């Protein structure tokens, strides 16, 4: 204490003129004893302390928030002016990391930069938090605080590799994911890209249904956070459903005039179904001299009928059943003509003409005796008129076809301009009438206006607007009863002959 007092007195003795008034003021007010006591007790010189206030340390750096991807390095800066002999201390929460140049944390994860910045190596989730750089200034600490957020890419931690449910049920898909920020989860169909609706209040879950067989397939769980990191996993969905049947009839020429028939029953089901063929009334078929059953690809049963003849005409039924149900479909094996097929090389747009040639082919077990062609102005192309009916033409067959395939044609005349026409064809043999052909459209434009065929393809007629089944009826001996136009013409001719 005597040394400190001596030092104080030395400072007073060496004070410059600007300080003399200050010293005299102290001494004239009886402050010398107080100074002596203060020095003896604290060891501090009040004159020296006042002079050093302007040289206290202060921070150049400011507190910041860092968003750092997991695995990267980061430097938390702590630049100080007038540090002198004061000590810089780094801490996280209650843990001391360093004091000046000495590292207290010894795990190799941190190091100090020359200007007392704290570098954290290969940051992980545990490194997130608040870091404080502080200095104790004569018992009055100052500090800055940095906040470190660790960006963790999403990772899906649980999901189902596969799920199975029945047709008509609702299915919930689910997966969970971790990451920082917490990721959002979406479910999409791999085949269509459709996003599935989420389950309200259930993180990572989506619902699918009511299920159809088409819903079978792969669905993708995608976890994504705001920094555009993604992680995906797949779930295979299997839909169980009762059998669905489609039938196909094929006629194969064995030799001239001799035909084999294939009836193909194709079954879609899950699980696989047992398939059987029956002949009316309810005779289960098996392989014999005339019929052969062939199973193919676990979902197809083919009934081969050799040397088809009239005695075998009947209804044939395919039945399929599995654990979820049973279904059946029936095909009538008959001598009636197959559906006529309009020739595909027809022009959809007719220009500079008032007539149009329609041609077609038909398969038939027995020779075709007549064709019936129906045509009319389509409603989409009609002017305001009350004529909404079909014009009907009976066309006798004058030449036989080769094998089972027969050809027919007819020229429609007196066509009106700027009108879309509909055409339907049916065929007849001694066994009866064929089903109607598909509706065909063509457009008459004498000025050659550009109208795309796609516009005509979309012009269809309502089923209720099709020609009725009794327009061309068949009598017991198979000859056609001609339509009204031909009947009227015949009546006029007979009357002329009599006259």
Describe the structure in your own words:
About 10% of the residues lie in helices and about 45% in strands. The chain is elongated, with a radius of gyration of 49 Å. Residues about 1-10, about 10-30, about 30-50, about 380-385, about 450-465 and about 470-499 have low confidence and may be disordered. With about 500 residues, it is mainly beta. The strands form seven sheets. Strands 2, 5, 6, 7, 10, 11, 13 and 15 form an eight-stranded mixed sheet that branches. Strands 12, 14, 16, 17, 18, 21 and 22 form a seven-stranded mixed sheet that branches. Strands 26, 28, 29, 31, 32 and 33 form a six-stranded mixed sheet that branches. Helix 1 (about 1-15) crosses helix 3 (about 30-40). The chain has helices spanning about 1-15, 15-30, 30-40, 45-50, 455, 485-499; strands at about 60, 65-70, 75, 80, 90, 95-100, 100-105, 110, 120, 130-135, 140-160, 160-165, 170-180, 185-190, 205-210, 215-225, 230-255, 260-270, 275-280, 285, 290-295, 300-305, 315-320, 325-335, 340, 350, 355-365, 370-375, 390-395, 405-410, 420-430, 430-435, 440-445. The termini are far apart. The chain has six helices and 33 strands.
């Amino acid at each position: 204490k005597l040394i400190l007092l001596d030092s104080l007195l030395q400072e007073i003795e060496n004070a410059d003129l600007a300080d003399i008034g200050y010293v005299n003021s102290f001494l004239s007010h009886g402050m010398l004893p107080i100074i002596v006591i203060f020095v003896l007790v604290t060891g501090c010189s009040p004159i020296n302390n006042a002079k050093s206030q302007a040289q206290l340390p202060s921070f150049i750096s400011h507190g910041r928030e860092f968003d750092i991807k997991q695995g990267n390095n980061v430097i938390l800066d702590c630049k100080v002016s007038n540090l002198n002999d004061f000590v810089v201390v780094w801490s996280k929460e209650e843990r001391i990391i360093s004091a000046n140049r000495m590292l207290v944390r010894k795990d190799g994860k941190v190091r100090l930069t020359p200007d007392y910045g704290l570098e954290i190596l290969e940051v992980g989730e545990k490194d997130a938090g608040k870091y404080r750089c502080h200095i104790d200034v004569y018992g009055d600490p100052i500090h800055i605080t940095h906040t470190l957020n660790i960006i963790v890419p999403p990772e899906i931690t649980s999901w189902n590799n596969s799920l199975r449910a029945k047709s008509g049920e609702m299915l919930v898909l689910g997966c969970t994911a971790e990451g920082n920020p917490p990721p959002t989860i979406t479910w999409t169909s791999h085949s269509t890209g459709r996003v599935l609706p989420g389950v309200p209040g259930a993180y990572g879950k989506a619902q699918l249904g009511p299920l159809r067989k088409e819903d079978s397939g792969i669905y993708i769980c995608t976890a994504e956070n705001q920094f555009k990191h993604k992680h995906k996993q797949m779930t295979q969905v299997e839909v169980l459903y009762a059998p669905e049947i489609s039938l196909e009839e094929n006629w194969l020429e064995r030799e001239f005039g001799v035909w084999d028939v294939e009836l193909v029953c194709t079954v879609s089901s899950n699980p696989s179904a047992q398939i059987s063929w029956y002949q009316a009334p309810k005779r289960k078929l098996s392989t014999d001299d005339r019929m052969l059953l062939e199973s193919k690809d676990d979902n197809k049963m083919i009934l081969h009928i050799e040397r088809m003849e009239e005695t075998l005409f009947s209804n044939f039924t395919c039945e399929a059943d599995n654990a979820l149900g049973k279904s059946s479909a029936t095909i009538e094996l008959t001598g009636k003509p197959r559906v006529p097929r309009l020739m595909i090389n027809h022009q959809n747009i007719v220009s500079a003409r008032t007539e149009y040639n329609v041609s077609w082919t038909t398969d038939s077990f027995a020779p075709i005796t007549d064709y019936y062609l129906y045509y009319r102005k389509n409603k989409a192309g009609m002017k305001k008129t009350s004529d909404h009916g079909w014009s009907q033409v009976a066309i006798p067959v004058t030449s036989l076809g080769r094998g089972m395939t027969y050809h027919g044609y007819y020229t429609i005349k007196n066509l009106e301009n700027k009108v879309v026409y509909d055409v339907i064809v049916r065929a007849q043999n001694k066994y009866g009438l064929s089903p109607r052909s598909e509706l065909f459209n063509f457009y008459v434009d004498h000025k050659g206006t550009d109208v795309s065929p796609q516009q005509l393809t979309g012009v269809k007629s309502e089923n209720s607007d099709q020609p009725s089944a009794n327009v061309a009826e068949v009598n017991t001996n198979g000859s056609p009863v001609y339509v009204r136009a031909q009947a009227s013409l015949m009546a006029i001719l007979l009357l002329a002959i009599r006259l």
